[in-house]
Structures are given as C-alpha cells and as structure tokens.
Write a structure and sequence with these properties.
The structure holds 2 protein chains of 2 kinds. By secondary structure, chain A is an all-beta fold. Chain A has no helices and 11 strands. Helix content of chain A is 0%, strand content 56%. By secondary structure, chain B is mainly beta. In chain B, the strands form 2 sheets. In chain B, strands 2, 4, 5, 9, 10 and 11 form a 6-stranded mixed β-sheet that branches. Chain B has a 5-stranded antiparallel β-sheet with strand order 1-3-8-7-6, with no helix packed on it. The chains are: A mainly beta, B mainly beta.
Chain lengths: 112, 113
Amino acid sequence: DTAVSQTPKYLVTQMGNDKSIKCEQNLGHDTMYWYKQDSKKFLKIMFSYNNKELIINETVPNRFSPKSPDKAHLNLHINSLELGDSAVYFCASSQSGTTTQYFGPGTRLLVL
Amino acid sequence: GENVEQHPSTLSVQEGDSAVIKCTYSDSASNYFPWYKQELGKRPQLIIDIRSNVGEKKDQRIAVTLNKTAKHFSLHITETQPEDSAVYFCAARDNQAGTALIFGKGTTLSVSS
C-alpha cells in the first residue's frame, strides 16, 4: 500500500545517455512534484503539476522534461545526461486545499 | 520568490538534552511551515507542521514555534534520543495550487549516548 512510489530506485548510466524516472501515487492527489537533492543534501523544486498541468518549472535545463499522463503519474525524462545530473530525485504529491506533501523513496542517479 | 535560511548546519547534543533548529523566511505570503526528518538513505518524512494562524504546536517531544512578524520559525526537540539523529529540513510555502515547498539547507543532528 505504498503511497508514492518511484522506479527505478537506483540508476547508473553513462554521460550522454537518455533516461527516465517514473513516479506513481495512489493517494488520489491532484498535484505532483519533482525535487532534486544534490550531494550537499539541498532539496530543490524542479517541477510541479496540478491536474496534469505544469504549474512550476524552475530554472532547470531543457534536457529535463516532465510528463504527466494522468493525475496519478508524473514521469521525468532526462536527455544527454551530464555528470552534474548525479543526485537523488524525489517525487512528491499533495492535494489542493491541503498542505502536506508526501515524498517517494527517491531515485539515486549516478552519471559516469 | 521565497528564500528559507536554516541554522545551524550541524548540531551535536548529548542524549537527554534539548535541540533547537531555527529558520527564517522571506516571503510574507508563505503561510505553511513544515519540518521534515530525513534519515540516511531515506525519504524526507513530515514530523510536524504549523500554519500561519498558529504561534506554537506540540507533538510529544517535538514543538514548533512561529513568529510571523519576524518571519522566524523554530523546531524544538526535548529529551533527545539517539534515534533522533538525522537531517532536519524546514520549509515554507503559500497555499496556491501547485506551490512547492522551499526548503532550508538542512541541519544534521547527532545525538550521542
């Protein structure tokens, strides 16, 4: 009965490759987010979607493209991976009108 | 946009002592202030939160205080235990749909027995 799940948990890849991370929530929430946690543990918002519409698109390279096929899913596709993309990527969800955000387990991306 | 400052970056206490972590925020529109605990290799977990219409909230050994005028909020942990050792993040946001949490840079709390 996992609330917010992500796949894969670990991702090791070479520079220049393209990869995707998937996120699913079964909480019935209408808003989903992607956060990046760098090596210094700093958590920063990348994107948020509300009812499948992009609400926040922080200053991230356009190599990162989120896709929300439905309210329960928010995927992150990354083109031409670079060393600096190595980080932990967390998906989260919340419901409009409430405030609590629930985080997924994270995807640890290592670019070699 | 919102900016959240968090201090200290590291905090070491003896078991049984109290620990206090402080945050300031910049955007007066922010009205929700959660605290997350992140253990090594795990996801951030909400431990307590406070809304701007409340000055203080307690949950067992954990309390949060908010000073809206000064744009300060603090986490207080009493009777610390080794299992309290983790990274703690404060955050702030307003209540617009889709608004994300803006996090402080985290405090690494170490509780030694």
